[in-house]
Amino acid sequence: MQTTASTKIPPTTAEVVVVGGGPAGAGAACMLAKAGREVMLLEREATATHKICGEFLSAETQSYLRRLGLDLDALGGHVISHLRLIREKTIVETALPFHALGLSRFRLDEALLNHASESGASLWRGQRASVSNVSGSHIDLDVKSAGKVSTNTLFLATGKHDLRELRRHPVTPPEDLVGFKMHFDVDSAQCDALANHVELVLFAHGYAGLQRVEDGRVNLCLLAKGSWLKACGGTWEGLLEELLRTCPHLQRRLSNATPLLSQPLSIYRVPYGFVYHPPANDADNIYRLGDQVGVIPSFSGDGMGIALHSGVVAASDYLAGLDAGHYHRHIRRDIARQIWRAGLLYRASRWSPSRRLLMSLAGLTPRSLSLATSLTRIPPAAVTRAMRRIS
Ligand SMILES: Cc1cc2nc3c(=O)[nH]c(=O)nc-3n(C[C@H](O)[C@H](O)[C@H](O)COP(=O)(O)OP(=O)(O)OC[C@H]3O[C@@H](n4cnc5c(N)ncnc54)[C@H](O)[C@@H]3O)c2cc1C
Questions:
Q1: Measured at the alpha carbon of residue 288, what is the angle toward residues 285 and 292, in degrees to the nearest 5?
Q2: Among 158, 248, 289, 384, which is 20 to 30 Å from 109 by CA?
Q3: Which PANTHER family does this entry report, sorted A to Z (predicted)?
Q4: Which residues, 6 or more positions from 320, have their beta carbon under 8 angstroms from its beta carbon?
């Protein structure tokens, strides 16, 4: 039952309200609905949208999506088996320890939302929600069409956006980084060169990921210092021009490319390294999922895996009668080390001498890249435990 807000009015109560229909919220809603629970899923966007993301689906991400019942093969992603790490003229290549998938968020998020709806969740699009009152077991939300929605259990899955009333804890200082994403149509030789590869390009002021997604489209997603963006004139066009001028590899890949989006997606002030630490007076009926519970540096390509894992763990803890306090301890145990290790690697890659050292190590033993990839994944035992809880 998919619906938009324009014609109908959402109900005013639900056993569980999920705010945010990204991988975390939609994944949790699928699971709760399949267990026969009354779940309302509120998504701010009225229609499918592009989102800033490298669009790299790790093995865990794919396993969760399939286990939740999504027909991933029908979505036409591009299989990725190899990683190329590039810095200046040095290129190191290695096989990934798993097969990843390149698939746009435009296609993936829409399919997952529809799947949640088909699984029995009451999906409401174009509904920006905010919290108006939390008192004991009772939570009131202000929602665009419904006015007020009341629930005893809230799953907060709004991604990097905080609801004003329910800020993250602890407050982590955001990095001076800006992110951009653009889809390109590249010439056939470059498209062939990118077949089955994800490329991670290190440049002086940041890094870029380049890979194919569905239909031969190529996704460029990059993170760069805000100060560098300013030096490039403060615009995407200026930044891209400077990037291609100073990075021959990207110049080769994108010289005859046509942008496929009317404008790039952008993001700034991402709280990389954040892991939710509940304050003493935390509500025991508000479960935080996805980027609301932990934000891993993007190069790891596992943010969606964490989002789905947290959605599954939150739903199964809730179904087992365990409160949000228990869930937050549980999810912290599962993801904190992975996020910490990814942060360490990320900081090393930003500092010029250690960046050179990393490249030399990768050149000597390309399999060390594969090891780094494994270190930044959710522990397999935690995934196996969570996966068993999906019926
Ligand atoms: C530059 C960059 C590159 C990345 N690359 C990758 C990658 O290649 N692979 C990977 O796995 N991860 C990647 N990530 C991380 C990944 O995008 C996130 O970790 C993941 O999307 C988190 O999922 P989520 O469901 O928590 O949040 P989101 O996917 O952000 O979904 C949140 C949803 O909530 C909705 N929403 C927000 N506020 C409200 C509101 N008030 N009311 C109703 N709805 C609301 C939004 O519209 C959105 O649909 C990247 C992140 C960045 C910044």
A1: 155
A2: 384
A3: CONDITIONED MEDIUM FACTOR RECEPTOR 1, GERANYLGERANYL DIPHOSPHATE REDUCTASE
A4: none
Within 10 angstroms of residue 236's Cβ, the number of other Cβ atoms is 18
CA 359 to ligand 1 centroid distance, Å: 30
Pocket perturbation via mutation, ligand 1, pick of 291, 296, 339, 373 by most ligand atoms within 8 A of CB: 291
Checking if the pLDDT of 2 tops 70, the result is no
Neighbours of 373 (CB within 10 A): 20
What confidence tier does 4 reach under pLDDT thresholds 50, 70, 90? very low
Polymer length of the chain = 391
Q: Which atom of ligand 1 is nearest to the CA of 128?
A: 42
The answer to whether 226 touches 176, Cβ cutoff 8 Å, is yes
Least confident window among 76-80, 88-92, 123-127, 356-360: 356-360
Which residue from 144, 161, 239, 302 has its CB within 8 A of the most atoms of ligand 1, so it is best to mutate? 161
What is the set of domains in the chain, with CATH numbers? 13-76+103-171+273-347+379-388 (3.50.50.60), 177-268 (3.30.9.100)
Which residues sit with their C-beta closer than 6 Å to ligand 1?
19-25, 42-45, 52-56, 61, 127-129, 157-159, 161, 163, 179, 221, 223, 267, 270, 290-291, 298, 301-305, 307
pLDDT score, position 6: 43
Q: How far is CA 68 from CA 72, 228, 328, 391, in A?
A: 10, 42, 22, 8
Whether omega for the bond prior to residue 279 falls within 30 degrees of 0, making it cis, is no
How confident is the model at residue 7, as a pLDDT?
Answer: 54
Average pLDDT, the chain: 93
Spatial neighbors of 79 by CB under 8 A, at least 6 apart, are 99, 100, 101, 102, 196
